[in-house]
Design a protein that fits this description.
The complex is a heterodimer of chains A (about 90) and B (about 150). Chain A has about 90 residues and is of the alpha+beta class. Chain A has a single domain, classed as Roll (Ubiquitin-like (UB roll)). Chain A is about 30% helix and about 25% strand. Chain A has a five-stranded mixed β-sheet with strand order 2-1-5-3-4. In chain A, strand 3 (about 55-60) and strand 4 (about 65) form a beta hairpin. In chain A, helix 2 (about 30-40) crosses helix 3. The longest helix of chain A is centred in the middle third of the chain and has 11 residues, at about 30-40. Chain A is globular, with a radius of gyration of 12 Å. Chain B is of the alpha+beta class. Chain B has a single domain, classed as Alpha-Beta Complex (Aldehyde Oxidoreductase, domain 3), CATH 3.90.1170.40. Helix content of chain B is about 35%, strand content about 35%. Chain B has four helices and eight strands. Chain B has a four-stranded mixed β-sheet with strand order 1-4-6-2, with helices on both faces. Chain B starts with a strand and ends with a helix. The chains are: A alpha+beta (about 90), B alpha+beta (about 150). At the A-B interface, strand 5 of A face strand 3, helix 2, helix 3 and strand 7 of B.
Amino acid sequence: MDTVRILYFAWLRERAGRAEEHLVLPADVATVGGLMTWLGARDDGLRDAFGQAGLVRAAVNQNFAANDTPIRAGDEVALFPPITGG
Amino acid sequence: MARVSVQSEDFDLATELDLLQQAAPGCGGIGSFIGIVRSTAERPIIAMTLEHYPGMTATAIAGITAEAEARFSLLACTVIHRYGRLRAGERIVFVGAAAAHRRAALGATSFLIDWLKTKAPFWKQEHLADGTAAWVAAKAEDDTDAGRW
């Protein structure tokens, strides 16, 4: 599978206007941080959110991830605001 | 042994406490916490919608209960977390911890709810009396509370 599955949650989902998409990433997009930069360049609403430190968190294959966590084709990457559970 | 459930429907408190006690032979104490949708005069809330990450939620909570069982030598514990639209006054979450003694049971209960707040993938949206909706912002104190363990 060549694509990465990207999921958006909460107000980030509303900002993106979609809950999920499947994208083929350019070869130089290899980390969570790189993905956010790339997605932000394609979408003004997302760029504003990604540009503010601490506003968006991520999980790769359903494990919490950091900016430098690697992403490969076939991965599931979730992007979301800080959690408000409990 | 942990019982974890992520569900839209309400739960029965007496049933859950009985199940927890039965799952923990030899326990000397059970601690519990119930989270409730709160509406106040200053901020009247009609309802709250809880969104979650279905593929990840149960696994993330199971990781949290495993950590609690190891840290507090629990005999059993339960986490039930609801999702969907809940009206003011409805229960959101149940946490129960059974241990040999009260200190472990009560400590584990605090630990479980503190970690759920920051490590279980849920997001709350409040529906206000004036018809607007607002996503709840994460509180810095929640990170502080989770970090003290």
